[in-house]
């Protein structure tokens, strides 16, 4: 029997992760595509609005929408078709959008959704070329971490890869998602943030070094050397390339001491601000907890109550 304390803890972990992604995303939306020079001159310090997408403060993007779609789908068991269907509903019916409007979608994600709707298998829908390695699956993958309680680790990573494939099927994108989830699982189990980083990369390294992903290991050298946090900021890129996003999010998380510091650091790297901050925020919120997310930011989040309700189902 699951204790009341266990239920409360799981609820809090899920709420922290979902809200952590969403708040980071919303912080980055108004300044998406702005340069690092611009952000250095005028750093983001609070929840803003309008800007790039002309949206009110607290508006989140496709990053959070697809995260919520995945989380909700998992409540009814693991079904790739159900997940893909929810992505279709998001794009065509504005399902799980912040304000009833889809205003930001990557081309790789869009084409994959179309491929699935035309009859393709979910695992064959996503882009498989090297040019298909945007961060569109990494940005939404966090809910998979909560399955660690139910699955053997190798099976969890296999399913993480399958979920990535719905939109991004190249091994590099699958591996980025696997690394991220492995670190998130270590955090969920209570590891210190740097210990979780080291444990996370070690656990998946054993899988990737003996699989078809081995040829991709060279692209993750800076992550797997265990010292991504020691790189100077000038060596950290924050564009839409999946490895850039993974590296930047780990760098921001490991080089901060609070949720707010981590996500603001991510936003102020510039360029793909919403995704970098959302991916960073997922890890930071699991580690620091929901109460460490500034309340004035949470209060501005669109559909805040719906997000709080959603965590109850997945726990």
From TrEMBL:
Cofactor(s) recorded in Swiss-Prot or TrEMBL: Mg(2+)
Cofactor note: Binds 2 magnesium ions per subunit.
InterPro entries xref list: ADP-ribosylglycohydrolase, Ribosyl_crysJ1, Ribosyl_crysJ1_sf
Binding-site residues for Mg(2+), renumbered to this chain: 61-63, 272, 274-275
UniProt entry keywords in alphabetical sequence: Hydrolase, Magnesium, Metal-binding
Span of the signal peptide: none
Domain of life: Bacteria
Record-linked Gene3D superfamilies: ADP-ribosylation/Crystallin J1
Listed GO MF terms: hydrolase activity; metal ion binding
A matching Pfam family: ADP_ribosyl_GH
Recorded family membership: Belongs to the ADP-ribosylglycohydrolase family.
UniProt name for this protein: ADP-ribosylglycohydrolase
């Amino acid at each position: 029997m699951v204790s009341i304390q266990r239920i409360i803890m799981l609820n809090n972990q899920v709420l922290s992760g979902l809200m952590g992604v969403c708040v980071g995303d919303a912080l980055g939306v108004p300044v998406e595509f702005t340069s690092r020079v611009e952000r250095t001159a005028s750093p983001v310090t609070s929840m803003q609005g309008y800007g790039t997408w002309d949206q009110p403060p607290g508006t989140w993007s496709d990053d959070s929408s697809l995260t919520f779609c995945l989380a909700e789908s998992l409540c009814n068991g693991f079904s790739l078709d159900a997940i893909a269907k929810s992505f279709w509903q998001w794009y065509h019916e504005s399902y799980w959008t912040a304000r009833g409007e889809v205003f930001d979608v990557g081309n790789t994600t869009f084409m994959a959704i179309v491929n699935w709707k035309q009859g393709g298998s979910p695992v064959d829908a996503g882009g498989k070329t090297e040019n298909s390695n945007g961060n569109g699956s990494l940005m939404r993958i966090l809910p998979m971490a909560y399955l660690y309680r139910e699955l053997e680790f190798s099976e969890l990573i296999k399913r993480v890869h399958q979920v990535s494939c719905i939109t991004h099927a190249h091994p590099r994108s699958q591996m980025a998602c696997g690394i991220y989830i492995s670190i998130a699982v270590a955090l969920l189990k209570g590891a210190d943030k740097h210990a979780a980083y080291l444990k996370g990369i070690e656990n998946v390294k054993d899988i990737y070094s003996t699989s078809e992903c081995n040829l991709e290991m060279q692209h993750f050298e800076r992550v797997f050397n265990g010292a991504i946090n020691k790189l100077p900021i000038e060596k950290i890129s924050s564009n839409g390339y999946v490895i850039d996003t993974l590296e930047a999010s780990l760098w921001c998380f490991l080089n901060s001491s609070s949720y707010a510091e981590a996500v603001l650091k991510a936003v102020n790297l510039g360029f793909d601000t919403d995704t970098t901050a959302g991916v960073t925020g997922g890890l930071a919120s699991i580690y620091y907890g929901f109460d460490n997310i500034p309340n004035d930011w949470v209060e501005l989040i669109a559909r805040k109550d719906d997000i709080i309700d959603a965590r109850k189902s997945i726990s």
